[in-house]
Amino acid sequence: MQFSSKPTRPRTESVVPMINVVFLLLIFFLMTAQIAPSDPFEVELPASEGQQPAEGRDVLYVSAQGELAFDGARGEAVFNAVASEELRGPLLIRADARVSAVEIATLLPRLSAIGISETVLVTTQ
Are 95 and 120 in contact (CB under 8 A)? Predict the structure, then answer.
């Protein structure tokens, strides 16, 4: 009587090390990514022909209705928040395109009075 041996399957490599590497990369990218906070309200930026992008980290938002927001503060509390903040570069002003130039012009002396010497109006091309 002759018994046949079971057919041998080729040994497959484990995918566990590859899964471990993928999870480590995922954790690395999640830990190192900067998650930007959402804007306090929708702002439609005015258009311009400038070529240089605005750079800075501290942003003052001005809505179409003239509402102000800065780092969690709203309304008149914005000026106290800006004054107490140690700014890293110029203060960026993201004003809605429907905000009049007069409103921006009245905002600038108030910012100057609390010690803000450099501001940049953010626009789109």
Answer: no
Domain assignments of the chain as residue spans, ordered by start: 59-121
Is residue 74 within 8 A of residue 68, CB to CB? The reply is: yes
C-alpha span between 49 and 74 (Å, rounded): 31
Q: Which helix (H) or strand (E) holds 29?
A: helix 16-32
Residue corresponding to tokens 């009587």:
1
DSSP label at 90? S
Q: What is the pLDDT of residue 24?
A: 95
pLDDT of 1 > 70? The answer is no
SS3 state of residue 34? coil
pTM of the predicted structure, to 2 decimals: 0.67
DSSP state, residue 124: B
Please name the CATH architecture into which domain 59-121 falls: 2-Layer Sandwich (3.30)
CA distance 61 to 74: 9
